[in-house]
Amino acid sequence: MKEVENLSLNLQTHTQHFTNPLYLESGRILEPYDITYETYGELNEDKSNVIVVCHALTGSHHAAGTYEGENKAGWWDGLIGPAKAIDTDKYFVICSNVIGSCFGSTGPMSLQHPHHEYYRYKFPVVTIKDMIKAQRILFDRLDIHRVHAIIGGSMGGMQALQFAIHYPNFAKHIISLASTYATQPWAIAFNKVAQESILNDPNFKQGYYDPKTIAQEGLNGMAVGRMAGHISFLSHESMAQKFGREYKRTDGLYELFGKFQVESYLEYNGHNFTKWFDPLAYLYITKAINIFDLARGFDSLAEALKKIQAKLHLISFKDDLLFKNTEMQKISQILTEVGNTEHKYIDIESDYGHDAFLVEIEKFDNYIKEAIDE
Q1: Which one from 87, 130, 278, 320 is the annotated catalytic residue?
Q2: Domains and CATH numbers, the chain
């Protein structure tokens, strides 16, 4: 087990190795496998102060704090830490990198045992349910058999909801933000653009690229796909406020390839992204998101939601174009219909778009604090 420590919030990073087979929803098996995870705060004596944080598509286990020499803090640093909504002076927080990702947990560019060659397409398709099953096995190893709360946004919110249904007695509180009960065609369509952009880039080499080359040079096709993704994460209003119709001062208005500021933003973020996120991992994780459906394996969504025992907190954002607030409303409506009185639903007034769960923390952090401190 390797360990990195940041004393300001007791940030520690670990990797656990598992040799027992992980039986996947598809019927395939993954063995052996690793899970990398990060912890914050101190575990109390009776282990009753554990909060599990689940990350989104391009997130990782690094949810808060900074490593030595690092300028950018973890992706939910505004929410996790001393005296913040998820108070690490009070709670012991765990965030693990999902299987299929590229930040330490086993994924398509991990070395396959015993051949020591990259899995690539030999890596099995994993689902959101597989991701939480692997996490549940990790928690068992850590001798954590019940947690105070599970919280996540977007794909993290999918994981939180899946925990609520398939491990109904594992968490006291489940908080799902900017998520859905099943991925809808609009989101699948954006993922399709990204997938096709990757697959049709000749430098992708049909999945047999050199990862070192990608890390240095990026992948143009993936950059285009990521640009499409960024459009779905924002909204008309947030783009207008952020960029307006500002034009690059160094470009002429009548130059064919002159750029508006929004174009420069998409280019920069798209191409930069491809140097730190693996393209095969992107394909596998977007596949998991596309096939996510809480009702799979049940007669209906209502039958699935009847399994929930935790106090469920649903948070949507008004102008989320990727996972519309009506999708979270539907979960709440069905829960009410089946007699669940232990859930709450709020719709946050926001015109930022899907990424509001990462950016506009001040609009919901008090609600999260009240929910977990209840």
Answers
A1: 320
A2: 4-182+293-373 (3.40.50.1820), 187-287 (1.10.1740.110)
